[in-house]
Design brief:
It is built from 3 helices and 9 strands, in the order ββαββββαβββα. By secondary structure, the chain is an alpha+beta fold. The strands form 2 sheets. Strands 1, 6, 7, 8 and 9 form a 5-stranded antiparallel sheet that branches. It has a 4-stranded antiparallel sheet with strand order 3-4-2-5. The longest helix is centred in the first third of the chain and has 15 residues. It is globular, with a radius of gyration of 18 Å.
Length: 169
C-alpha cells in the first residue's frame, strides 16, 4: 500500500446545479441526468469555473441495498437549469484532500482511501466538520477505469484553547 498524501484546501462558496438519485447504483442515474444538461451548456469546457462534485445522500446503510448520490456542478449566477435539476448555494469551507483512482488504485479502493483520510484527520491538528464529504473527479468525462477522484473531507482548524480559557479581570 502507498502512503496517503494529504493537502489542505479551502473551497470558495459557489452556486451549484444539483441532481440526486436513489437506488442500487444512483451515481450513474444522477450523473447521466446532470451530464446531459451540462454538456448542452458546455460547462465541461471550463472545469475551474464549473467544478463537479459528488457525494452520498443519504449514505448507504448495512441493512439496505439502496442509497442516494448527489452530483453538483458549479454554475454562473444567471444560469437556470431545467426542471428536475435543483439550484443550491454551497458555503465552501476547509477540507483535507486525498487523491485516488476510482478503480484499481494501489492505495486501495475508494472506501479504503476515505478511511485513511479520516484516520489522518483524527491524528492531525484539525477537527472534523459535519457537512458533506465530497468526491471531485479530475476529469468528469473520463472513462470509468480512468477516473481520478479528489476526496474532500470537511475539517476546521482546532479551537485555540489558550485564549478562550483565559480568565478576564
Amino acid at each position: 500500500m502507498e502512503e496517503l498524501n494529504v493537502r489542505i484546501e479551502r473551497l470558495k462558496p459557489m452556486r451549484v446545479a444539483s441532481m440526486r438519485a436513489f437506488g442500487t447504483s444512483p451515481e450513474q442515474i444522477a450523473w447521466e441526468k446532470i451530464r446531459a444538461w451540462a454538456e448542452a451548456e458546455r460547462l465541461f469546457e471550463d472545469r475551474e469555473k464549473h467544478p463537479v462534485f459528488g457525494f452520498n445522500n443519504p449514505n448507504p446503510t448495512p441493512d439496505a441495498t439502496e442509497y442516494g448520490y448527489e452530483f453538483w456542478i458549479g454554475i454562473d449566477k444567471n444560469m437556470n437549469p431545467p426542471e428536475g435539476i435543483e439550484v443550491k448555494d454551497f458555503a465552501g469551507g476547509l477540507y483535507a484532500v486525498a487523491t485516488c483512482k476510482l478503480i484499481g488504485d494501489p492505495k486501495g479502493d475508494v472506501m479504503n482511501v476515505w478511511q485513511k483520510l479520516w484516520q489522518w484527520v483524527q491524528s492531525s491538528e484539525y477537527d472534523w466538520r459535519k457537512t458533506n464529504e465530497l468526491e471531485k473527479p479530475s476529469d468528469p468525462l473520463a472513462a470509468e477505469e480512468d477516473i481520478v477522484l479528489e476526496l474532500y473531507l470537511p475539517i476546521q482548524e482546532p479551537k485555540d484553547t489558550t485564549e478562550s480559557d483565559a480568565i478576564l479581570p
